[in-house]
Fold this protein.
Amino acid sequence: MANMPRDLGWENCPVELWLTGVIVRDASGNAAIRDDEGHVYGLVWGTHNTATTDYGDRYKIGGTWFNPDFRFWACGGADAVIPL
């Protein structure tokens, strides 16, 4: 499983948007997602999200932005992590 920061125990959120891309490492070595346009966004995994991801694999992940640094919060739960 890819290594990524987690939220602080918040419940699953309603999915506001979807990101589709490949799981990669960011400059700090944590998991990020590189979307189809080549943008790389850090990921914050929802504590209650039981899904796993692997580096180099492609996913469609539901969640919302985790401010202030434009990390994507994968808070939609395991049903919102779709391997492609």
